[in-house]
Amino acid sequence: MSFLNSPALWGILGAIGVAVPIIIHLLHQRHRRRTDWAAMELLRRALVVRSGQVKLEDLLLLFLRCLVLALVAFALLRPTLDDQAEGFLGEQRVGMVIAIDASFSMGHGKNDTRMEEAKLRVGDILDTAKDGDPITIVLMGEQTRTLLRGANFDLDSCKEELMKAEVFPERFNLERATVELSDLVDELKASVKECYIVTDAQATDWANFSEEAAGGLENLSQKAKLFIIPVETEGRENLAITDFSYSSGSLGPGGLSRFTAEVRNFGLQTHEGGSIALSVNDRNGTPKSLGPIKPGESRLVDFYPDLDQSGDANLTARLGRQDDSLLIDNQRKASVRIKDRIRILCVDGEPFSGDAPSETFWLKKALELNQFGDDAFIEVKVSDWEELDASSLEEYDLVFLANVEEFDLDSAARPLDSFVRKGGGLVVFGGDRLNLKKYNQVLHGSEVNLLPGELVDFVAFGENSEAQEESGEETSWSLAEPTSSHVLAGLASSLPQDARDTLRFGKTVQVRPDANSTVILSLAGIDTPLVLEKQVELGSVLFFATTADRDWSNLVVHPLFPMLMQQTITHLTNPSSGTVEGNLSPSESNLEPISAESLEEAVASMDAIVIPPETSNLTGIVKDTRKGTEISRTLLILALLIFILQGFLAMTFTKRMTATGDSDLQQSLRKHTVVAARRT
Amino acid sequence: MQEKYLDTDTLDSIGPLDVVTRQVVEGIRIGMHRSPVRGISTEFSAYRQYVPGDEIRHIDWKLYARTQKYFVKLFDAETNFIANLLMDTSSSMNFSSGNISKLEYAKYMVASLAYLIVDQRDSVGVGMFDDALRSYIEPKSTPGILADISREMEKVEPKPRTNVAEIMHEFAGRMKRRGMVMVFSDLLDNTDEFIKGINHLRFRGHNVTVFHILDPQEIEFPLNGVWRFEGLENDGELVTQPARVRQAYLRELEEFIGKVRGACIKSEADYVLVNTAEPIESVVSSYLLQRMAARMR
């Protein structure tokens, strides 16, 4: 037996209810009055006759009243019997949560889509419901959308709501779905609880559960009878754009930028003759031929759009091929912001560095590059640290700090923090003047936390014996092979190995990266990053663990340096370049379903029932699995009958002790007087 | 009247009525009561067939002329009588559910009846008893006895245990002449012994009237809730719900009263059930009226 309501809460309330008549009885017993009495012998004889019967009657009434309250409390717990006994002890109320996969893959199908198939299956399920059964119908995508929630079953209204079901441009989030379904199942007040997941059972979702999803399904199957009902449509050919984003280049006026689209064939046959076209702000470009793409193969296509106009540019890549059965993933969007002017502040922490050019010299060269005069859209201003006006930071898009010794929390760190949080870009270069302790306290503390990691120490090549041994005859460190997918790492990796190896670093600042920061480039032979990034609300902070001059490395005279600086400008002024909200999840485009057998194996430990798509007798299968009867109504009827019985008994006992025979007795007593007197 | 128990209102209500005994008692003084000694008064009573020894002057010649048989006339003699009023003063009589206890009620009745008896020139004596005769005022027909009765009754202090039967036996022996005995008690005692006492008095030719005095609460037992009853005769205590045993109690009471009443009838004694909720004058008047009616028959 199980209970639909909380046994703890209702159990306590029931116990209190049962205790009430007992307490009243005891209080009644305690509340006794006294009187002198003359006819004790008569009373004693009466008691001998009645006391046993009275006690029995009292106990019987007390027991019946307690029983009534106990039954009501028990009924409020809504107990259910596990076996099927409908019509005898109670009624079988079936609560259903029906979840329909509404991810965009459910839109697949030339004639009837998978969503239409799903609706038919849901119709079969609803055929098993009776009027009054609580029904919940939800659409599951990235998030849950409710069509009906705990509504009493009515076939017409259910079908009406079902007609509203549609596909959303989202993936099916199984992890989130199981959690939310579990909550919805909890809401059901029924002796039998069932949860149906009607899905196209994509292999990407169901073949390998995450632990979270497995746990969610396990939990769900413990709360309700879990049915997984796959639906299918003919074929699964699908060509999709799985990625489209800014790759590299300058996003300024007149700059050249590259966008790359990835087209993937998720089908079982080779696709030929397809094309892809780019449109910028709804201006269509010339389609490019894709050529044949084999099953499972991806094709990268580069676009170099003409982005002369300042402002937001919306780019859309579209497949020209329109004959696959899932069109929603045939296009993908990207968005960039083209600025007509980018203002950069370079702060020199060591303005007087002797004859050698200062940090800001190299930075200015790399940032301005070959722009001249009024055409220059990148405007670089150089400032000494002592002259820096922190209140004017908002006039700039980017701030470069080169070898600045330390910061004051209020006058510098807080304004910088505010600048970054509002979307500004901050680039910090190392140097001998850095007071690492102060940096950690002020820029990596609890109040202001801008640095991507803790600055541990200065490390010069040769000071670390292990590093020296590892590097053999080398006198400096080189750049490690880039492994990050970051756009800056892409630049480094685009260089030939030889060119990359000419980059040498003799000294660095050892950094312990934060968990939420990204290591972009690292040094070879020493376990410390060279370039790190950290996102701080709308802005980003880049830290270079080397100097912006030639003191610690030859980076500033290496061809990579201007490329890095230019890309840094683009990256920091377009932090979201290449990504657009609403683009579809690529995994959802893979229409490959998991077989019913594999699905059964996958959920074998969860006591879930998988009903294959070819099964025609869905209604019968569902009905056969039902068991469990709620007996609340029976208990309430029983309580009512006992209540009536005790009322009848109480009335009988009372009448017997007060009314019945009293008038006769009084009459008889009166007669004694009269008769005796007459006799006299 | 100045005495406490000779209430003017009560006596005014009763006053016009005469105390009339059912049977004729012997007496020296000529009064309103018929004497069993026939032939000494002028009031015709009945005829009896002549037997040798009867006085010739008592033969009714007119009747002889009609019937050719000798009958003599019998005449009732009117005498005074002696009434002994025995009042139970045990603790049980002290019970009261209202304004007046059974004992107080009995005192008023005794005083009222004593007044009426003395007022018609008969003699009255009063005895007060619990488990023994505590005081006894010898019968007198002078009005002064009323003050004595009232004074004695004021001194009464109820004590446990009633033994009505023994008192009756004692009076049966004490009263040399046949007279009237009125017993005022709740009779919550050994009923069988009481019946023997009645029989003993009747055997000695006394005219006995039993006033069975009960409180309305004892008669109706109307209590509700849980009560603790503490016996007035040192007979323990009981806790019960009166409503639940009411029926059984009333049956017991009916049986008890029926047994006493039956014994009285069998012994040709008068039995009067007195409910202290009823006005005293009403009870006494009713009793006297019944006696008057009996005489008329």
User: What's the helix count of chain B?
Assistant: 9
N-to-C series of helices and strands of chain B: HEEHEEHEEHHEHEHEEHEH
* Largest sheet properties of chain B: 6 strands, mixed
Mean pLDDT of chain A: 83
Class based on secondary structure composition and strand pairing of chain B: alpha/beta
Strand order of the largest sheet of chain A: 18-17-19-20-25-24-23
In angstroms, what is the radius of gyration of chain B? Answer: 22 Å
Largest sheet of chain A: 7 strands, mixed
Percent helix among the residues of chain A?
Answer: 25-40%
CATH topology of the largest domain in chain A: Rossmann fold
Tell me the fraction of residues in β-strands of chain B, as a range.
Answer: 15-25%
The CATH superfamily of the largest domain in chain A is: Class I glutamine amidotransferase (GATase) domain
Instruction: Name the pair of protein chains with the most residues at their interface, and give those residue counts.
Output: A-B, 45 and 59 residues
Inertia-based shape of chain A:
elongated
As residue ranges, the low-confidence spans of chain A are 674-680
Low-confidence stretches of chain B: 13-33, 35-42
Q: What general form of chain B does the structure show?
A: elongated
Explain how this protein is built.
The complex is a heterodimer of chains A (680) and B (297). Chain A has 680 residues and is α/β, with parallel strands linked by helices. In chain A, 35% of the residues lie in helices and 24% in strands. Chain A folds into 4 domains: 2-85 and 631-677, no CATH class; 94-234 and 594-627, Rossmann fold; 239-339 and 580-589, Immunoglobulin-like; 342-558, 3-Layer(aba) Sandwich (Rossmann fold), CATH 3.40.50. Chain A starts with a strand and ends with a helix. Chain B contains 9 helices and 11 strands. In chain B, β5 and β6 (133-140) form a beta hairpin. In chain B, α1 (8-14) runs parallel beside α9, α3 packs antiparallel against α4 (144-154) and α5 (164-174) packs parallel to α6. The interface between A and B is large, with 45 and 59 residues. β2 (32-37) of chain A pairs parallel with β9 of chain B, so a sheet runs across the interface.
